[in-house]
Amino acid sequence: EDRDDLVFFASGVSNSSCTDEKEYEREFILLKTIPTDKHIVYFSNLGIYYKEDRYTSHKIKIEEYIRTNYTSYTIVRIEVCEWVKTPYTILNYFKKQLSDGIEPVIQDTTRYVLSLNEFLYWIKMIKSGVKNEMNILGRKMTVRQIVDEIKTGKL
To answer: Which pLDDT band, with edges at 50, 70 and 90, does 1 fall under?
Structure first.
């Protein structure tokens, strides 16, 4: 649900493999159009804690800009969202592979998979007028568990 006291900024680079500098610059320019006296809610990524790539360094840069320039903000860090339909997510990539008859390569790693209900629960908790950062984890799952749940229709 919309809230008059918050500005949700969910217009950033959606593909974590993006190498197009224009996309990163577009997000930064758009961010700068939001008045710094408004409470901004920025959607970042949990990867800032463990990844080193262009997408992650961009997320860190944007977070630092928000901390420095906004009087109040909420930075929300998420990872894999069950409801997102873009083809760039790990869930949708695996779903496409499986529908094409390709068995996904299973890496020995984990991801945090977030349901829409859990996401909305935490978003409703945001208080305006403060400086806040939230890591919304969801379920910690191995890539094998993710693929198995896709195969059984749970994801």
So the answer is: low
Asked if 135 and 118 count as a contact pair (C-beta separation under 8 A), the reply is no
Share of the chain above pLDDT 70, in %: 99
What is the value of pTM for the model shown?
0.89
SS3 letters across the chain:
CCCCCCEEECCCCCCCCCCCHHHHHHHHHHHCCCCCCCCEEEEEEHHHHCCCCHHHHHHHHHHHHHHHHCCCEEEEEECEECCCCCCCCHHHHHHHHHHCCCCCCCCCCEEEEECHHHHHHHHCCCCCCCEEEEECCCEEEEHHHHHHHHHCCCC
pLDDT for the residue numbered 139: 96
Question: Scanning the structure block, which residue is given the tokens 């990163």?
Answer: 24
pLDDT band at 64 (very low <50, low <70, confident <90, very high): very high
Q: Is residue 31 within 8 Å of residue 65, measured between CB atoms?
A: yes
